[in-house]
Amino acid sequence: MRLGDPDFVDISNVLSLMLNVTYAAKLQKLINDSRTFPPAYYTADRLNQLEDHGTSHLNIVDQERNVISMTSTINYAFGAKVASKSTGILMNNEMGDFSLPSTNPGTPMMNFIQPHKRPLSSMVPSIILKDGQFLAALGGSGGIKIITTVIQVFIDSFWKNYSPLESVVRPRLHHQLIPNVLNYENWTTVGGELIDEPNDVLEYLKSRGHSLAASSPGGISQLIKQTLCKPEASFHLSKQERFCLTAVSDLRKDGFPAAY
């Protein structure tokens, strides 16, 4: 793990690598469509997974296309399990996101505790633009599963061209390298919706050497996407009138979108 609070840790080299085409090609060569490998094949770094479960995500878009994508968390379920006596608000335990030498021996110091330092987080509130114009607001909750959730919703929406609703409700996979297990969804929501990965997909993954484990909901995603709903020829309409906003709240958390 080579990331940490940029006010305390020089992460410029890591960020440069993330955006480097040559490095991306090197990572791509590690991917083998016919089989999977142990974690050490992909990285020699000792990894420390974050655990957080008390998160909510909110997207807001107004008629002028001002956008907010906000993720808030108290870290664990019920946070520090301490509430303010004056407000009743639960206190977070965000300090738990730091790495500790005593419990994570051998991990780099980038995420060790220091005064005024911010811990690493899985949160990825996102606003997606094209040519400076708003396309979508996207984010999620669910601890370490947030990252794989947001990536899969993005791929389904923008690469596979599923509708916003399909992109959010489709079954998702999660792998965090350690443990070397691929989690797939197989469960029923509070509203009675069955979310499960198709058997042919699971058999394909098994044939590639993956160890599979069924899981209850992974990450929870919220999405607002702007799409063209009126012909471009309608010059008498404003840009906002030619484009529609579609908001989806993940049924895994029994929420719903609201419009005013």
From TrEMBL:
<protein>
    <recommendedName>
        <fullName>Gamma-glutamyltransferase</fullName>
    </recommendedName>
</protein>
<dbReference type="InterPro" id="IPR000101">
    <property type="entry name" value="GGT_peptidase"/>
</dbReference>
<dbReference type="InterPro" id="IPR043137">
    <property type="entry name" value="GGT_ssub_C"/>
</dbReference>
<feature type="active site" description="Nucleophile">
    <location>
        <position position="55"/>
    </location>
</feature>
<dbReference type="Pfam" id="PF01019">
    <property type="entry name" value="G_glu_transpept"/>
</dbReference>
<dbReference type="GO" id="GO:0006751">
    <property type="term" value="P:glutathione catabolic process"/>
</dbReference>
<feature type="binding site">
    <location>
        <position position="143"/>
    </location>
    <ligand>
        <name>L-glutamate</name>
    </ligand>
</feature>
<feature type="binding site">
    <location>
        <begin position="73"/>
        <end position="75"/>
    </location>
    <ligand>
        <name>L-glutamate</name>
    </ligand>
</feature>
<dbReference type="InterPro" id="IPR029055">
    <property type="entry name" value="Ntn_hydrolases_N"/>
</dbReference>
<dbReference type="GO" id="GO:0005886">
    <property type="term" value="C:plasma membrane"/>
</dbReference>
<dbReference type="GO" id="GO:0036374">
    <property type="term" value="F:glutathione hydrolase activity"/>
</dbReference>
<feature type="binding site">
    <location>
        <position position="97"/>
    </location>
    <ligand>
        <name>L-glutamate</name>
    </ligand>
</feature>
<dbReference type="InterPro" id="IPR043138">
    <property type="entry name" value="GGT_lsub"/>
</dbReference>
<feature type="binding site">
    <location>
        <begin position="121"/>
        <end position="122"/>
    </location>
    <ligand>
        <name>L-glutamate</name>
    </ligand>
</feature>
